[in-house]
Design brief:
With 129 residues, this protein is mostly helical. Helix content is 77%, strand content 0%. The two termini are 52 Å apart.
Length: 129
C-alpha cells in the first residue's frame, strides 16, 4: 500500500521568489488535482463489484410474498382472537378472521406476482417494436 505524503512549501522562500500568489495557487491546484485522482483510483479499487446475480432478487421477491401471506394470517388471527375474548365466543371469530386473513394474504401475493410478471415482460415488449 502506498503511503500518501503531502509536499510542504519551504517557509523561508518568499512568495515573490516562487512566482507570486498565482504561481502558488496553480501549484496547489495541481497538487489537489493529483490527490483527487489518486483518491478516486483508490476508491475504484476498493469498490465492491456490481451485483450481477439475478437469483438474489428472485429470492427477495419470494420472501416478500411469504411475508405477505404470514402477515395476513397473523393479523386475521389476532383480530379473531381479540373479538372472541371480547364477546366470549372463542372459536367462531378466530376461525372466521383467520380464514379472511389467509384470503387477504393470498390476494396480496397474487397482486405481487402480477407486478413481478409485468416488470419482467416490460423489457421484452419494448424489444419487439
Amino acid at each position: 500500500m502506498r503511503r500518501l505524503t503531502l509536499r510542504r512549501s519551504n517557509p523561508s522562500v518568499r512568495a515573490s521568489d516562487r512566482g507570486g500568489a498565482t504561481g502558488m495557487a496553480e501549484e496547489n491546484n495541481e497538487t489537489l488535482d493529483d490527490l483527487s485522482k489518486r483518491i478516486e483510483a483508490a476508491k475504484a479499487r476498493q469498490a465492491p463489484p456490481p451485483q450481477l446475480d439475478e437469483h438474489y432478487s428472485q429470492a427477495q421477491q419470494g420472501w416478500r410474498m411469504v411475508t405477505e401471506l404470514v402477515s395476513g394470517l397473523l393479523i386475521g388471527f389476532g383480530i379473531g382472537y381479540g373479538l372472541d375474548v371480547l364477546f366470549g365466543t372463542l372459536p367462531i371469530f378466530l376461525i372466521l378472521f383467520t380464514l379472511l386473513g389467509f384470503i387477504a394474504g393470498v390476494r396480496v401475493m397474487i397482486r405481487t406476482a402480477k407486478e413481478i410478471q409485468d416488470r419482467q415482460e416490460a423489457p421484452h415488449g419494448a424489444d419487439d417494436e
